[in-house]
């Protein structure tokens, strides 16, 4: 990714997109809420 050729608004949009994706992943993996975590073989 070449940040030098990117406008400020594009850069901010990319950062917001990355933050939204990170939040979605954290919620999906159940951080801070162990009962929402995906089951794995170790805890079955």
Automatic annotation (TrEMBL):
The UniProt annotation puts the region (Disordered) at 20-44
In terms of Pfam families, this protein maps to:
DUF4023
* InterPro entries documented for this protein: DUF4023 (IPR025097)
Recorded protein name is DUF4023 domain-containing protein
The organism's taxonomic lineage, starting at the top? Bacteria, Bacillati, Bacillota, Bacilli, Bacillales
